[in-house]
Amino acid sequence: MFRRFAPLIAVLLVLTGCATRPSEDSAAPPETEGAFPVTVAAPGAPAVTLDKQPQRIVSLSPSATETLFALGAGPQVVAVDSASNFPAQAPRTQLTGLSPDPEAIAAYRPDLVVVYADTTGLAGALARTGTKTLVMPDAKTLDDAYTQFEVLGKATGHQAEGESLARQTRDDIDKIVADAPKRSLTYYWELDQTYYSVTSATFIGQVLTRFGLTNIADGTDPNASGGYPQLSAERILQSNPDLIFLADSKCCGQNAQTVAARPGWNTLSAVQRGQVIALDDDIASRWSPRIVELVRTVAAAVAKTGA
């Protein structure tokens, strides 16, 4: 998740969920079309060979969970991590992708585990039980996200659906961007109340760059701090952004009113012109098909600046 680059509390705030018990007698869904064995790999991740279509999938990545359900692999998913809160029917548990417990995961008898990173040797531990681990790292570009849709489709026996989902998402985003007015605007993207932000070198930053927006967090090097710098209130006030996007509305209760109440912030153009946009934190931090909703929100904000 993008937010793990900000302070740890910004990550933990979204990791709430309710536990469910491992299913011991879940009926496996019928086989869907797909040629197995297949070898798949997400950009920047190791290749994995699957001998047959997985029927018991555990997802420890909220972005992957959303994608799996969007491409029709939901019936194959037997457990997801506590942060995977969409869609509603996803079988949430107390599992976590931050510090995955191989024994707890194995209790769900998975034949495929999907994670966004493997820094603890999880793949090796699960391999000893015959379980494959597919790493789906943070998407660095929209093209990476589209490729992940295709990879998950191929890995789960839904290759056509994955390709269709990638194509439709790309087309939707391209059309929204093409139809949006072209304006020279600056913006500040807020991850939390300590002013951690994203630069244009990040996935989210590149999405907003599609609209020709200028990121006040870029400074002289958009790659500094891994693309997730902590700004100061003074820098934000001096930059006077035209747009403020709040990716901390659900976790931290931030909105246009709380921003306007900050010392000196009522003088900002974005505040005075009603251009403080409270986002859905989850949509704003995941590279799932719901990125289309974020792009629509940005397009609406850009259009409103000319109203």
- Radius of gyration from CA coordinates: 20 Å
Structural class: alpha/beta
Largest sheet descriptor: 4 strands, parallel
Q: What percentage of the residues does DSSP assign to strands (E)?
A: 5-15%
* Order of SSEs: HEEEHEHEHEHHEHEHEHHHEH
Q: What is the average of the pLDDT values?
A: 90
Task: Report the strand count.
Answer: 10
Unreliable stretches covering 5 or more consecutive residues = 3-32
The strands making up the biggest β-sheet line up spatially as 4-3-5-6
Inertia-based shape: elongated
Helicity, in percent? 25-40%
Domain Fe/B12 periplasmic-binding: 56-306
Protein name: ABC transporter substrate-binding protein
Keywords: Signal
InterPro entries: ABC_Transporter_SBP (IPR050902), ABC_transptr_periplasmic_BD (IPR002491), Vit_B12_bind_prot (IPR054828)
Task: Give a short summary of the structure.
The protein is an alpha/beta fold and 307 residues long. It has twelve helices and ten strands. The strands form three sheets. A four-stranded parallel β-sheet has the order 4-3-5-6.
Structural notes for this entry:
- InterPro entries: ABC_Transporter_SBP, ABC_transptr_periplasmic_BD, Vit_B12_bind_prot.
- This is ABC transporter substrate-binding protein.
- Belongs to the bacterial solute-binding protein 8 family.
- α2 links the parallel β3 and β4 (77-80).
- This protein has twelve helices and ten strands.
- α5 (142-155) runs antiparallel to α6 and α6 (159-179) packs parallel to α12.
- Mean pLDDT is 90; it is low at 3-32.
- The protein has 307 residues and is of the alpha/beta class.
- The two termini are 35 Å apart.
